[in-house]
Specification:
With 184 residues, the protein is α/β, with parallel strands linked by helices. It has a single domain, classed as 3-Layer(aba) Sandwich (Rossmann fold), CATH 3.40.50.1240. The protein is built from 6 helices and 5 strands; from the N terminus they run E-H-E-H-E-H-H-E-H-H-E. It has a 5-stranded mixed β-sheet, with helices on both faces. The radius of gyration is 17 Å and the shape is globular.
């Protein structure tokens, strides 16, 4: 029996309605007023109209999009949540003491905001999802509706590209990345 490659599509949520400069990762922020148009744009570019599984971050900016796309039953999974900014969540970046934020930005791969996550921690969380024995149980076509940090972590895991390149990878709102994965 010849096994087909598995197709993994990771979609970033559409724009959100937040104050400029707000630090948000795992707080639940609403979608922008342009959501109807944004949804139609995603529907036009998304590869495929049906997925064996659709798995979403439980945050409303992802789950609503995943549900409204109507490309399969949606399952929530907290491993697809954005990087946690810990105590910084909901604060304006300008209100976070620069000495603390600069310390973090010098090594976001290994350092985390106070009570938050590092890039290595989000990679470990996403790796656990990919190693879940039930992940591909429904078929070879999988859609993840998630966040930019998770997509960058996926890119690192699936391509082996270095951390810094992955952290600089542009992932716009409503944009997807896709990978063909060999069955194990």
């Amino acid at each position: 029996m010849i096994e087909r490659k598995r197709r993994l599509v990771a979609l970033r949520h559409t724009p959100v309605a937040v104050s400029p400069g707000l630090c948000y990762g795992q707080i639940d922020v609403p979608l922008a007023d342009t959501y109807g148009d944004d949804l139609r744009s995603v529907q036009e570019i998304l590869p495929g109209r049906s997925y064996a599984r659709v798995i979403s971050s439980p945050l409303q900016r992802c789950y609503r999009l995943a549900t409204d796309l109507q490309v399969g039953a949606v399952q929530k999974d907290p491993r697809l949540m954005e990087l946690s900014f810990g105590h910084w969540e909901g604060q304006l970046w300008d209100d976070i003491p620069r000495v603390i934020s600069e310390y973090w930005t010098e090594d976001v791969v290994r350092r985390s905001p106070p009570a938050g996550e590092s890039f290595l921690q989000i990679i470990a969380r996403v790796q656990a999802l990919l190693q879940d024995p039930d992940l591909w149980s429904a078929g070879e076509n999988l859609l993840l509706v998630t966040h930019a940090g998770v997509i960058r972590a996926l890119h690192h895991i699936l391509t082996g590209e270095d951390y810094d390149s992955c952290l600089r990878l542009p992932v716009r709102f409503g944009e997807y990345r896709a990978w063909d994965i060999e069955p194990v």
